[in-house]
Design goal:
The complex is a heterodimer of chains A (280) and B (560).
Chain A: E1 5-9, H1 16-22, E2 25-27, E3 29-33, E4 36-40, H2 47-55, E5 61-64, H3 67-78, E6 83-86, H4 96-104, E7 112-115, H5 122-137, H6 142-152, E8 156-161, H7 166-170, H8 176-184, E9 188-194, E10 197-204, H9 207-219, E11 226-231, H10 239-248, E12 256-258, H11 261-267, E13 272-277
Parallel strand pairs in A: 1-2, 1-6, 6-7, 11-12
Antiparallel strand pairs in A: 3-4, 3-5, 8-9, 8-13, 9-10, 11-13
Helix pairs in contact in A: 3-4, 5-6, 9-10
Chain B: H1 3-19, H2 29-45, H3 47-51, H4 63-78, H5 86-100, H6 103-120, H7 128-144, H8 154-169, H9 175-196, H10 198-203, H11 208-225, H12 233-236, E1 254-261, H13 267-277, E2 279-285, E3 289-296, H14 300-309, E4 311-319, H15 324-329, E5 345-351, H16 354-362, E6 367-370, H17 379-388, E7 393-397, H18 404-413, E8 417-420, H19 426-434, H20 442-454, E9 457-463, E10 468-470, E11 473-475, E12 480-484, E13 487-492, H21 495-504, E14 513-518, H22 524-537, E15 542-547, E16 553-559
The chains are: A alpha/beta (280), B alpha/beta (560).
């Protein structure tokens, strides 16, 4: 029996080497920004998307992978394997999961396709995909891989804050009155990802406070395998956050990555946050 | 009415007043009512004088008015009561004062009545010894009601006056003598307050709350001596009071109903027993099934009794909301709330001004109790807001130092899980509300919100309403003054001058954001102009201008 293969989307934080080495299929995400469409493939420079977002008022956004793209991917991989794990960005944040699921049934009997809601994006999603790919290479079955990934899900935590409120308003995460007043008071909401959805946690008024809250969040964990800092490619300073984290977890390194296009759809171009992986 | 008839009516009234206390060695419920009425009237007459004793030259919740409103609420509770039992009357006074308490002095006054009622309990009539020990219990209860008791305040006056009463009661059975000694000591105690509290000495006043208590006692003494205590009608017109509770039924905490099914039930015996347990007893039925309906302080008693007779059905226990504090007064344990706890935390915010109200609303405040600087809400106002919300966990943000104690009192009367985050300014309240974490529990939130409130500084800019010397600064009426975190720190001739001076005292350059909430007294243009002046001086800080719409204060400014 051929080893299981993994399909994900371009929000997963993976290097080209990792993608090649594990033979991971990475599908591009289409970001609709107002009436424009920008295709974000894994090697796409995110900066262009963020710059467009930053230049203007918030527009309606969505992140999409058409079902036909999954169909093509399934047929192609189906020639090499009879087990496929599909795990793309959180079902609450993009329609890719629904699309992946909708066309999987057509392959029943020919190929087993497990579509698993990652409830993550970005570095968290990349972590899941890598673990799945390694398990597949070790000869584990699709069921075993699904169990492994499911077990990792509850150990990934994401907290972010945003400076601009208009994307939260467009996404109906805050009301228009709140957005107006919040902007007036330069309020920065802190948000947490819970079961794949972005949920308001609390609000602060200064950047220093927001950064402190991120550090406090990290400080609450007893065990941490990795902390990753997420920021905008337009560049907001992470020195202060690193300073705080060094006090909490001395001697560690904290990779700084740019957050992905799907998160940008919901948070806008100026979010900053952390991903914490507790380990298993 | 002719002059002649007025005179005769007055004479008759004065006669009946004296007749109301034929025996000065005992005081019954009706006499106690007249004492309260007299204390109220005498305080009312001197309300303006007590208000004038306020130390801070800011438009504030005035002590005289707050104590008067509290007394009025207490009296409204007993006005029509025919009770002869002085213990029962004192309970009602305590209940009225507790719910009607406004401001710190009002809350402490209500605690004094609570202690008095607790000591008198079910006493039919009190003698001098009982009166003295009730006064002592009253003072002790008042001390316990405050987290950090301060000497040189109404607390000291209550304690020293009570001690004088205890001494006097050892040598006399005449209540007039006791009250005379108590009142006289209260007067002396008030005159000593400046030596205990430097801020009073500097301002050249005595403690307003202590003076209010002295006046209540003096009014009572005047009544006992048959001297007039009528209030000045011009002053009474400024205070309005609505009835706190529907008139009528009094005194019991729970409405209990059930049907008991059994064999050979003795309806007459059950009727007798149930009637003895409480009020409004209704027992109907036959030897197989009897319906019971009774109002009792402890629902466990009739239910427990019913269960010994047979099996119970259709059990209904209703907390008679407007009377439940009676239950707490009688020191019985609080019952657990019957409804299932809701997960979300409700927030009760005290604020006034359209703009500020909108700010709090859009930040997710569940209920806003109108009030603030000059209008201190009563315990009942806050309690109603707490009780009316769907959540069982509630956080109160008083946003004024003279409302914190009232909020604490509302907390102690509510059966919900209530935390008071003691915010003393509007910006503290806003910062605290922002820090509310929807996922954290009540206690964590209360802690985090209090920390957030303390992390900011507030300046309040207003006009001095009286000339006074305080915090080493001499202020003339009409000058523009700035309070920093509640302390008078700067003065000047223009709003912007005082704003900049206040910011100069706040280490503003160490903070990130300056927020200016401008009040009704200045225009948006003027506010922008002040903001521009601030920006010139503090280029490293962000400045936000918000229409607060508050009264009295030109602007409220926070740095964080």
């Amino acid at each position: 029996m051929a080893r299981a293969r993994i399909i994900t989307d371009s929000t997963a934080y993976l290097t080209p080497d990792q993608i090649a080495q594990h033979e991971i299929t990475v599908l591009p995400v289409d970001i609709h920004l107002g009436d424009q469409k920008i295709r974000v493939s894994s090697d796409h420079n995110l900066k262009e998307l963020f710059q467009r977002m930053a230049a203007d008022q918030a527009q309606t956004t969505k992140a999409v992978i058409p079902p036909s793209v999954f169909e093509d991917a399934y047929s192609q991989l189906g020639r090499q394997t009879d087990q496929i794990l599909v795990t793309v960005s959180s079902s609450k944040l993009s329609s890719a999961f629904a699309a992946a699921k909708s066309v999987a049934n057509a392959f029943l009997g020919r190929c087993r396709i497990a579509v698993l809601d990652s409830m993550a994006t970005s570095w968290g999603l990349g972590l899941l995909v890598k673990a799945a790919a390694e398990a597949a290479e070790a000869g584990q079955s699709l069921d075993e891989i699904v169990r492994l990934v499911r077990g990792m899900l509850p150990h990934i935590y994401v907290v972010l804050f945003v400076e601009r409120l208009d994307y939260l308003e467009k996404g109906n995460r805050i009301g228009p009155a709140q957005a107006l007043l919040g902007t007036m008071l330069s309020i920065k909401p802190l948000l947490i990802m819970e079961e794949g959805e972005i949920i308001p946690l609390e609000k602060v008024r200064t950047r220093a406070n927001a950064i402190e809250k991120l550090a406090d969040f990290v400080g609450e964990f007893a065990d941490i395998e990795q902390v990753v800092i997420m920021r905008s490619p337009l560049g907001n300073g992470t020195e202060l956050l690193v300073e705080h984290l060094n006090l909490i977890l001395p001697g560690r390194t904290f990779p700084v990555i740019e957050y992905d296009a799907v998160l940008a759809c919901h948070l806008g171009p100026d979010a900053m946050g952390v991903t914490v992986y507790e380990g298993l | 009415m002719t002059d002649d008839r007025t005179t005769r009516a007055k004479q008759a009234r004065s006669r009946s007043q004296k007749e109301g206390i034929p025996d000065f060695t005992r005081c019954d419920g009706q006499t106690f009512k007249r004492l309260i009425q007299a204390g109220l009237a005498w305080l009312e007459r001197h309300q303006a004088a007590v208000n004038a004793l306020n130390v801070y030259p800011v438009p504030d919740g005035d002590t005289g008015t707050n104590m008067l409103l509290t007394m009025q609420a207490a009296y409204a509770e007993i006005k029509d009561s025919p009770a002869d039992n002085v213990g029962a009357m004192a309970q009602k006074v305590a209940k009225g004062a507790l719910m009607g308490a406004r401001g710190n002095s009002g809350v402490i006054l209500s605690q004094i009545f609570r202690g008095l009622a607790r000591s008198l309990d079910s006493t039919e009539m009190f003698n001098t010894v009982q009166f003295a020990s009730a006064l002592r219990e009253a003072a002790a209860t008042a001390y316990k009601g405050v987290i950090k008791p301060v000497e040189g305040t109404i607390l000291t006056v209550a304690r020293e006056a009570a001690e004088a009463g205890v001494t006097a009661a050892a040598s006399s059975e005449d209540l007039r003598y006791i009250l005379d000694r108590v009142t006289s000591e209260a007067r002396h105690s008030v005159s000593r307050t400046p030596s205990l509290l430097p801020v009073l000495a500097e301002a050249g006043v005595v403690d307003a709350g202590g003076q209010g208590l002295f006046l209540i006692l003096e009014g009572m003494l005047r009544f006992m001596r048959g001297e007039p205590v009528t209030a000045d009608s011009a002053l009474t017109a400024t205070v309005h009071l609505r009835p706190l509770y529907p008139e009528g039924e009094e005194g019991y905490g729970y409405d209990v109903q059930f049907i008991v099914h059994g064999e050979n039930l003795n309806i007459e015996e059950i009727q007798r027993n149930i009637t003895a347990m409480g009020e409004s007893a209704l027992v109907v039925g036959d030897s197989q099934a009897i319906k019971v309906h009774v109002h009792v302080p402890d629902p466990g008693i009739p239910l427990g009794y019913g269960a010994t007779l047979g099996s119970l059905s259709r059990v209904i226990v209703e907390n008679m909301q407007e009377q439940y504090q009676q239950y707490i007064l009688s020191q019985t344990q609080r019952p657990a709330t019957a409804t299932e706890p809701l997960s979300k935390i409700g927030t009760v915010v005290v604020a006034s001004g359209q703009g500020l109200t909108k700010v709090f609303e859009s930040l997710g405040a569940t209920a806003i109790v109108p009030g603030g600087q000059t209008m201190n809400p009563s315990t009942e106002d806050i309690l109603k807001a707490v009780e009316s919300m769907p959540s069982s966990d509630v956080i109160i943000l008083p946003n004024n130092k003279n409302i914190v104690l009232t909020a604490e009192q509302a907390k102690s009367l509510s059966q919900k899980n209530v935390q008071v985050v003691p915010t003393i300014t509007i910006p503290q309240g806003i910062t605290a509300l922002l820090a509310l974490n929807y996922q954290a529990d009540l206690l964590t939130n209360a802690r985090v919100m209090a920390e957030a409130a303390e992390s900011i500084q507030t300046a309040e800019i207003t006009t001095a309403v009286r000339s006074v010397q305080i915090n080493g600064m001499r202020v003339r009426e009409g000058e523009i003054i700035g309070m920093v975190d509640g302390m008078l720190r700067v003065k000047g001739n223009s709003v912007s001058e005082v704003v900049l001076a206040a910011l100069g005292q706040m280490d503003t350059e160490l903070y990130e954001i300056i927020t200016l909430y401008y009040g009704q007294a200045i225009t948006a243009d003027k506010a922008e102009q002040i903001a521009a002046e601030i920006a010139e001086r503090y280029s490293g800080q962000g400045i936000e201008v918000v229409d607060g719409g508050q009264l009295h204060y030109y602007c409220i400014i926070s740095v964080e």
